[in-house]
Design a protein that fits this description.
7 strands
Length: 192
């Protein structure tokens, strides 16, 4: 999918649900924030004025689109990989990952990096689609993932994202499911 088409193709689902969820997740956080996989910058307008955001996006075309959305906000956008972050340990108060873990080649390593750069007691805020608990729907996700990855910038519909997070000693604070338990949003605490 071409980056300039992403916002247009996602506009219906963004308008119906995702924008509302993003706003609930991001509008009240302040402090130092790192956002993994900023994509086209759809989250940027939703951060509070108290947030100092460092957004990473390894894709050049997506990063160019995201730059257009920064405006006057305290957001810096850098070319970096979630699996190898250029930050010191315990740098951030919050790590934000929205619809990005599905595209990261090594999500386990990325979650390990999130843990490393997030201070003890800091939060991991997520909005992700997840592997469905229903075996038949999970099988459908397995079947759809290979062609979907081609269309959707490497997205894996069938990742067991919540297990990856919890295996890295993040403590669940809250999770909310929607779209038939195919999507989840919520927060975790870094218990190092």
């Amino acid at each position: 999918m071409k980056a300039y088409l992403y916002d247009r193709l996602m506009s219906t689902i963004e308008r119906r649900k995702l924008h509302q969820v993003r706003k609930l997740l991001l509008s009240s956080i302040g402090g130092r924030v790192v956002e993994f996989g900023a994509g086209t910058g759809v989250n940027f307008a939703l951060y509070s004025e108290e947030a100092e955001v460092t957004a990473i996006e390894p894709d050049n075309t997506l990063r160019e689109e995201a730059l257009k959305k920064i405006g006057e906000r305290r957001i810096s956008l850098i070319d970096a990989s979630a699996e190898e972050l250029p930050f010191e340990d315990d740098t951030f108060d919050h790590v934000v990952i929205t619809l990005a873990l599905c595209t990261i080649p090594d999500p386990s390593r990325a979650i390990g990096e999130a843990k490393r750069v997030c201070r003890r007691g800091g939060t991991l805020l997520i909005l992700e689609h997840i592997r469905n608990e229903n075996k038949l729907l999970a099988l459908l996700q397995d079947i759809l993932t290979p062609p979907w990855k081609i269309f959707a910038i490497g997205c894996h519909l069938n990742r067991d994202t919540l297990s990856l997070i919890e295996e890295n000693s993040f403590e669940r604070i809250s999770l909310n499911y929607f779209f038939g338990r195919n999507f989840v949003w919520g927060s975790y605490r870094n218990i190092k």
